[in-house]
Design a protein that fits this description.
Layout lengths: L1 H32 L10 H9 L4 H10 L2 H23 L4 H14 L7 H5 L8 E3 L8 E5 L1 H13 L4 E5 L3 E3 L3 E4 L6 E5 L2 E3 L12 E9 L2 E10 L3 H6 L2 H4 L7 E19 L6 E4 L2 E6 L2 E3 L10 E4 L5 E3 L2 E3 L5 E3 L4 E6 L2 E2 L5 E6 L8 E12 L5 E5 L6 E16 L3 E4 L15 E15 L3 E6 L7 E12 L7 E5 L4 E7 L5 E2 L6
Length: about 500
């Protein structure tokens, strides 16, 4: 860590020198053409002298010739180098915060330089304090309850008036429910080198509650460095009666992100959650990078990443293994990008289910591309409940998807009824502007493409392009089944589009 900090400092000091040289050249150029400069306070005397010597321009030019531009720059750089060397010497024995302060001080001594350096680079400037959870009493031994220590450092962080980093050193930290809530007075970085561990006991919670909750935060940054959020859910899966009752929401979600704005989550793994692994709710402009999910196929109702009522979410580079949907997309989701995700085992990459509840907000602008789906129950799918109130999915693109031995690789299911107890009547969720492009690989079922749209509101503007799906099953060559839809077909099409009607007993 010290080596990295010194490297970062060395880079900053090089920038200081570069700015010094640029400003030195600029100053000299301005002197040559008689342009008035925007000077700091220590330059005011020079400015006054320049006015008094207005009548002696010829003598000034003669003196300028005697002292070359190169020698002037050399002098300024020499002075800058001395300041930089002094700052580096002091910083080598100091903390990262002291080093940043020394570099800033050095830049301030250079005539014409802009301070702080972060402003010149478009950065926010030096970060604020770093708070270590172990310094607040956390043990990290996997046995001691460290909840109080985490809440203590969080309280300090949200009150800090400068950007603050919470540091979690190596170790396994046993914590109960964490409600890490804002708003904060300045941006917070949560940097992890250790793992979080939930109690294994099964305790019912308020529906949709979370184990680790981040709420009401702006410019939040969680840097996982490979950290694991272990929900210890294996006991919960055995007693979960969700499949029989359909009531699945009284167990904790591993990680809940609620009302986050302009934030980033990277480098974490959620494992063995008791319920959903991650729930992104009412968020704006949030990026998940290299966020992984790990649970066995038999883990019930453990959706990997669920997104709802959120705008501008990006999910990249995730590897998801779980017992339910790898990614599920709920009402109110707009402008979602899912890219470079590997899914399986699980139930695929899904929009929905939708239409179970009244007044669900529309789903718009969904892009799922460059993904790999392996050994899952579904590939890419849209699912809505029969007998539903009105709803809308508009603008969904599934593109560049590779299927590896997947059941029903392409599925639109508007008669979704997983528990056998559903309302009568057609789904009233309108599906429009759907595109399935360049989807290839193998299907474990004879039906490789199934577009089962609602008779109450047939699908509109559906496009199939460059589909190449081959069945690996014993039932024969792959087929495509459709109802209440007339897709536009372009490019290679294996199997041929809509050669069969959807059958009621097929999903």
């Amino acid at each position: 860590m010290v080596g990295l900090r010194l490297k970062a400092l060395f880079f900053v000091l090089l920038v200081v020198m570069a700015i010094s040289i640029a400003n030195a050249a600029k100053d000299l150029k301005e002197q040559d053409v008689g342009v008035q400069r925007n000077l700091h306070e220590d330059d005011k005397g020079d400015k006054k002298d320049a006015k008094g010597e207005k009548g002696d321009k010829k003598d000034d030019k003669k003196e300028d010739k005697e002292e070359s531009v190169g020698s002037k720059v050399a002098k300024k750089v020499k002075g800058a180098a001395a300041s930089v060397a002094s700052a580096a010497s002091n910083a080598s024995a100091a903390s990262a915060a002291s080093a940043a302060s020394a570099a800033s001080a050095a830049s301030g001594k250079i005539k014409g330089a802009v301070a702080p350096i972060g402003d010149k680079l478009g950065l926010k400037g030096p970060s604020g304090p770093s708070i270590d959870v172990k310094a607040s009493g956390a043990k990290g031994d996997g046995k001691t309850d460290d909840t109080a220590a985490f809440m203590a450092v969080w309280k300090k962080a949200i009150e800090a008036t400068t950007p603050t980093t919470i540091t979690v050193p190596k170790g396994d930290y046993l914590v109960e429910e964490l409600l890490l809530e804002g708003p904060s007075k300045s941006p917070i970085t949560f940097e992890m080198h250790g793992n979080l561990k939930a109690p294994s006991a099964v305790t019912t919670r308020k529906p949709h509650s979370g184990w680790v909750n981040f709420r009401k935060l702006k410019d939040f940054n969680l840097i996982g460095n490979g950290a694991i959020f272990d929900g210890q859910g294996s006991v919960a899966w055995k007693v979960n009666d969700c499949k029989q009752t359909g009531k699945c929401n009284n167990l904790p979600i591993n990680i809940r992100l609620t009302q986050l704005d302009n934030s980033r989550i990277s480098g974490i793994t959620s494992t063995n959650s008791k319920l959903f692994h991650m729930n992104i709710h009412q968020c704006t402009n949030v990026t998940l990078q290299d966020v992984h999910i790990d649970a066995p196929a038999e883990s019930l109702n453990t959706d990997g990443i669920h997104v709802g009522k959120s705008v501008g979410v990006t999910i990249r580079g995730s590897k998801i293994k779980t017992g339910d949907d790898c990614i599920s997309i709920g009402g109110g989701t707009e402008n979602l990008l899912v890219e470079g995700v590997e899914c399986g085992p699980g139930h695929g990459l899904s929009i929905g289910s939708l239409g179970k509840y009244p007044n669900e907000e529309p789903v718009k602008g969904i892009t799922i591309r460059k993904c790999i789906v392996k050994h899952t129950d579904n590939g890419v799918r849209i699912k809505t409940w029969p007998g539903s109130p009105p709803g809308l999915v508009s603008g969904a693109l599934f593109e560049d998807i590779t299927m590896d031995n997947v059941s029903l690789p392409i599925l639109v299911d508007q008669v979704y009824c997983p528990h056998g107890k559903c309302k009568s009547g057609p789904s009233k969720v309108q599906l429009e502007n759907l595109s399935f492009k360049n989807i290839r690989g193998t299907s474990s079922t004879k039906i490789a493409v199934q577009l089962n749209c609602s008779p109450g509101c047939p699908c509109k503007n559906v496009a199939l392009a460059d589909i190449n799906l081959v069945s690996t099953g014993k039932e024969g060559a792959a087929v495509s089944a459709c109802s209440n839809v007339k897709p536009t077909v372009t490019g290679k099409m294996i199997p041929a589009a809509c050669t069969e009607e959807c059958k009621p007993d097929k999903k």
